[in-house]
Amino acid sequence: MAQWDEEVDLLVVGTGAAAMSAAIAAADDGLDVLVVEGSDKWGGSTGMSGGGCWLPTHPGMKEIGVEDSEEAVLTYLDACVGTPEEVGPASSLARRQAFVRTAPVVHSWLEGHGMVWQTAEKYPDYYPDLPGGIAGGRTVEPAPFDVKKFGDWWGRARFSMPAGLPLFAGDTYLLARAWSTPSGFVGGARMVFRTLGGLVAGRRLTGLGASLSSRLMWIAKFEQGTEVRLETPLTDLVIEDGACVGAVVTGPEGERRIRARVGVHLGAGGFDHNLEWRKEHQGIDVEHSSGNPYNTGTAIEIGRRHGADVALMDDAWWGPSVAPTSTTPAVFIVSERSMPHSIVVDQEGSRYVDESTSYVDFGHAMLERGLERTNHSWMVLDVRFGRKYLNNAFLAGKKALFEEGVAVKADTLEELAEKMGVDKATFKASIQRFNAFARAGVDEDFGRGHDAYDNYYGDPTHGPNPNLGEIAKGPFTAIKIVLGDLGTKGGLLTDEHARVVSTSGAVIEGLYAAGNCSAAVAGRTYPGAGSTLGPALVFGYLAGRHAAARATELAIADAADRAVGEPVQEVQAG
User: Fold this and answer.
1) Are 467 and 340 in contact, with CB atoms under 8 Å apart?
2) How far apart are CA 352 and CA 433, in angstroms?
3) Which domain holds residue 142?
4) Which end of the chain, N or C, is less packed with Cβ atoms under 10 Å?
5) Is 409 exposed, middle or buried (0-12, 13-18, 19+ CB in 10 A)?
6) Which of 307, 345, 266 is nearest to 513 (CA)?
7) Domain identity same for 475 and 495
8) How is residue 227 annotated by DSSP?
9) Same structural domain for residues 520 and 420?
10) Are residues 217 and 328 in the same domain?
11) Are residues 82 and 48 located together in one domain of the fold?
């Protein structure tokens, strides 16, 4: 028997959406919960994200007049993800059903804890034209949160957008065209007034993923009183008789063995920044991940050490990123590649993808093109792009991009091709063909601008296609694009209750996992905005609820064992 330094009911590892959802759900049912975070910052990749959560059939859909159903969502998942038989156990029918049935429950449950959701009415599924797909409403995002309430604790938060900018994810695509379209101007004005309103009221409002992670942390730590320890990494699990009964962590006080009477929940992220693993599983020599820099796969490795199975280790939440410089990180790009007067070509000067497609599909196209290693693509911009639309990559450090050759500029396309190092004839032919499509309004090669998702990030005032604009007016700019990601999507295999499954196919009792340290229910694709965070919240919730039910079962079994062991009292007749 292990010797313990302390005991809790449920030990939760990590502080992102998957971890905090489990912690809150378990505490709701009266469990004694302890949360440990390996890094010195709380929030995980959630705090660095856009904050959108794909929660189909949620109650807010009816409020905007959008009908949805479990049957429609399952049909859509079959169409865009593939059938459970095609994808494998990570996306089993039982897991899909658990996700779809629980998504609206989680939406209402968090509302009951003070979460204010905004329905992304115009944000479509990523494949809206497939059976079961819809053109908006399944994604929700949290309202801005006043982080001033945290006091010094906010100084330990992980985030990408500073407090004081209360953005919604929907604001970002409007801001990208803030000075070129009426809707963009209105969206920008709303964001400005929201910011000023917060300042006048003496609040420090934050939006996007930082708002989501902040609300979850506020519920767990400040409302429920759950202890959260930073700089306390998991170093091992304690397994007895096939069940997880505790864990070993290290911290300021050294190594501690914590008994977890009900179990351990792993929500510690993927292996985004473990280059050795990424070489082994994904064939990547250089990673440009936008995920939490602390994500190195520790929880996955420890789980495997104790017989846990894994799946989808070769995949990630891929997407194109602007190449880094010595002073700026890789910048994940979304809206920029959808606006008119832009095109993407490879190192030969050939176009190979619908630039406006979902980032995962764009990433898969780069992989199929052999661009996962040191090769790169180029995003080419007509001068009109810079005059009308925002380029987030330039906000990160425009000067460095040009000084280090990540961005180049020229007055003519021939000169630009020379600076890019691509074949002039191939590049010229690609541009001419693309310009013909732009004038006609139909991309005959890749279908850019063909559906509601492509159009979402386009310019509605530009015709005949909101995503297609000629590359014809100089000076022209080209920016290096590399394969990036929002994190890895392979990890521990779990069942519909978020219980970790062993290589033998049996459940490891008392061991749970959700989020990017578990294999994604979305398989190898991305059904809609928030397909990482939505399932993370849902399966974290399911883990917490199952742990609470397990606590009851263990208590009943323990009481029965004690009753059997008590001596029988003789009863004498009077």
Assistant:
1) yes
2) 13
3) 6-164+204-269+489-556
4) C
5) middle
6) 266
7) no
8) E
9) no
10) no
11) yes
Residue 574 has pLDDT above 50, yes or no: no
- Least Cα distance to 14 among 36, 46, 30 occurs for 36
Contact 157, 214 (CB under 8 A): yes
User: Which tens digits make up the pLDDT trace of 455-508?
Assistant: 999 999 999 999 999 999 999 999 999 999 999 999 999 999 999 999 999 999
Compute CA 344 distance to the chain's CA centroid, rounded to the nearest angstrom.
25
Confidence (pLDDT) at 558: 74
| Residue 400 sits in the same domain as residue 449 | yes
In a domain, 285, yes or no: no
**Phi-psi map region of 498: left, alpha, beta (phi>0 left; psi -120 to 50 alpha):** left
Closest to 268 (Cα-Cα) out of 306, 296, 239: 296
Question: In 383-481, where does DSSP find H-type helix?
Answer: 383-388, 392-403, 413-420, 424-440, 452-456
* Residue whose C-alpha is closest to residue 48's, from 135, 159, 165, 138: 159
User: What share of the chain in percent tops pLDDT 70?
Assistant: 90
* Domain stop point among 471, 486, 501: 486
CA-CA distance, 71 to 53, in Å (whole number)? Answer: 20
Provide the 10 A C-beta neighbour count for residue 402. Answer: 16
In this structure, the answer to whether residues 532 and 468 fall within a common structural domain is no
CATH of the domain at 442: 3.90.700.10
Determine, yes or no, domain membership for 561: no
Q: Give the number of other CB atoms < 10 A from CB of residue 176.
A: 24
What is the C-alpha radius of gyration for the chain, rounded to an integer number of angstroms? 25
Residues 460 and 542 in one domain: no
CA distance to 13, 170, 264, per residue, from 389 (Å): 41, 16, 47
Q: Which pLDDT belongs to residue 275?
A: 95
Residues 354 and 428 in one domain: yes
User: What pLDDT, in 10s, does the model give residues 407-448?
Assistant: 999 999 999 999 999 999 999 999 999 999 999 999 999 999
DSSP string, 16-55: SHHHHHHHHHHHHTT--EEEE-SSSSBSGGGGGS---EE-
Number of domains within the chain? 2
For residue 213, what is the domain's CATH number?
A: 3.50.50.60
In a domain, 310, yes or no: no
Residue 511 CA to residue 498 CA, distance in Å, equals: 9
211 domain-assigned? yes
> Phi, psi (5° rounding) for residue 491?
175, -155
Residue corresponding to tokens 């705090």: 47
